[in-house]
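As a warm-up, study this chain.
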Amino acid sequence: MRSPERNALMFERAAVVLAALCLILVVVLNGRPYFTTSSFPPRGIMDPHVAMQMVRSVPEIDAILGDAPSADREAMRIKQYIDFAFIPAYAALFIVLSVALMRTSRWALVIGIFGVLAALHDVMEDRDILQIVNTPLAAVTGAMISHLHLMSVVKWMCAAVAIGGLGVFTLCARKWYFRLIGAVDLVAAAMILWGLVDNPTLVWAGMLLAAGMIANAATLKFLLRDLSKT
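Now compare it with the structure written out below.
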């Protein structure tokens, strides 16, 4: 039978390892292969990957990927496969943070639930993108685009709830730096929701979300100690 202290140590170490893995995968995801200069994401969205998630029409797909075959389609395909590795990593991190924080409140379960829901819809989003990547522009249907957009919106909304819940817990700590991390989490959640209306904001929201999760994981040991004294 593990003692509570040993269980806490296990979760703290798992959070750090998963955060490091997520960071590595984010770097890999944003590395090679790069999109060519022919890729022009619409509506001011800087990242072709995010632009593809929020795509609204066949001409927008053409602007991001071009018609099949194209180098940008191959780049998108590879990034989707990398994303399949990233998804379980961040889902596991949400779960670990959620379970660890349940020592202070059962409401922490919300973080894990919505983190997993975000991951499940992310998988469906990736499958939709791969389907479009493998389909010539003339054969892409409105139903394909609508389903991709729906999966992306639900994924981002679930992620907003998960990171927002994490921020609420962190803001309850006494130390100023925990409250700063909590503020980053809540700003990330707000930016995600706004980004669903103003899509270019999603790129920055995703960066803040990643920064908040990594900071929470890195300081989990000290956060749990702080919350146990409140």
